[in-house]
TrEMBL record:
GO terms for biological process: transmembrane transport. InterPro entries: ABC_transporter_permease, MetI-like, MetI-like_sf. This is Carbohydrate ABC transporter permease. PROSITE patterns: ABC_TM1. Belongs to the binding-protein-dependent transport system permease family. It is found in: Cell membrane. Residues 1-23 are annotated as: Disordered. It comes from the Bacteria. It comes from Streptomyces tendae. The lineage of its organism: Bacteria, Bacillati, Actinomycetota, Actinomycetes, Kitasatosporales. It is a multi-pass membrane protein.
Length: 311
């Protein structure tokens, strides 16, 4: 059988691949491209193309007077930056994210550590915590809408303990926190599964070695679990941040951005401008800014996680 590679030259340096090797390499590349083509096509059609169209549309304005769409450059962005309602939406979204992201990640981490242990019924409780993610967000919003009613189960429970009824979704000071509870109930179990997978990848030998060195349970968690769980934690934090920037259905079904704009998250504000106000190009400009804000926050988070890992 003849070899498909040429032997090294007299100085021990490898020579160029033979024609047979080059043909095999090209064949493998074509096969790989054929398998990747559907995913690349979906990425282009469903992600990159709409993103490009959104940027182009954000530079236009449609006049309701003469029905003509004109190129206006950055005027839509200038109007947004001068709109107090837009800045209120930004503040509400950032406040929502600053509270809900650490809350979900910490709860998911605590539950992952708990349910990663072997005890009777662990799988059942793990499945129970994960179950809310299998329910559509709109259904979860309806369920919590019933719970938050003035005559609903939560106020009935408060009455049992002699506490006054709470307005929840009708209060400007409570509505956002009511949504945070809802989104945490939905998301914690989902992120918990990623962290459990990360915990199960940590070799038991590292815990045994730390225990032999006299480390207690807390020290093993801080010095063994957290450093080795850094990558799954970084993924969960970034993915959770992106997910919470795009919250829409609960706001639309429960509060409509109110009361007094206290739950007017950016994603809902985009919907309101596009379909209630009817200015699709203005809404596209807000979409671009929302994506830019999301990328900026994610970049900061990723940089901080990388910094901690290098230390």
């Amino acid at each position: 059988m003849t070899s498909t590679t040429r032997p090294p030259d007299t100085h021990g340096r490898p020579t160029c691949p033979t024609p047979a090797v080059r043909r095999r390499t090209r064949s493998q590349a074509r096969t790989a491209l054929a398998f990747l083509a559907p995913a690349l096509l979906a990425l282009l059609v469903l992600r990159l193309l709409p993103a490009g169209l959104a940027v182009v549309d954000s530079l236009r304005h449609h006049s309701l007077v003469d029905g003509v769409t004109r190129f206006v450059g950055l005027d839509n962005y200038g109007d947004l930056f001068g709109d107090p309602q837009f800045w209120q939406s930004v503040r509400v979204t950032l406040l929502f994210s600053v509270i809900v992201n650490p809350l979900q990640v910490l709860c998911a981490l605590g539950l992952a550590v708990l349910f990663n242990r072997r005890f009777k019924g662990a799988r059942f409780w793990r499945s129970l915590v994960f179950a809310p993610i299998a329910v559509p967000p709109a259904v979860s919003a309806v369920i919590f809408g019933i719970l938050y009613r003035p005559e609903g189960p939560l106020n009935a429970l408060l009455g049992v303990f002699g506490l006054p009824s709470q307005p929840f979704l009708t209060s400007p000071t409570q509505a956002l926190y009511a949504l945070i509870v809802l989104m945490s109930w939905v998301g914690v179990g989902y992120w918990m599964t990623f962290l459990i997978a990360g915990l199960q990848d940590i070799p038991q030998e590292t815990y045994d070695a730390a225990a032999m060195d006299g480390a207690n349970a807390w020290q093993r968690f801080v010095h063994v679990t957290l450093p080795l769980l850094r990558r799954p934690l970084a993924f969960v934090l970034v993915a959770d941040t992106v997910s919470n920037f795009l919250v829409f259905a609960p706001v639309q079904l429960l509060t409509g951005g109110g009361p007094e704009g206290s739950t007017n998250l950016l994603m809902y504000d985009v919907f309101r401008r596009a379909y209630s106000v009817g200015d699709i190009h203005y809404a596209q400009a807000e979409v671009v800014l929302l994506v830019a804000l999301t990328l900026a926050v994610v970049a900061v988070q990723y940089r901080l996680m990388q910094g901690k890992g290098e230390e």
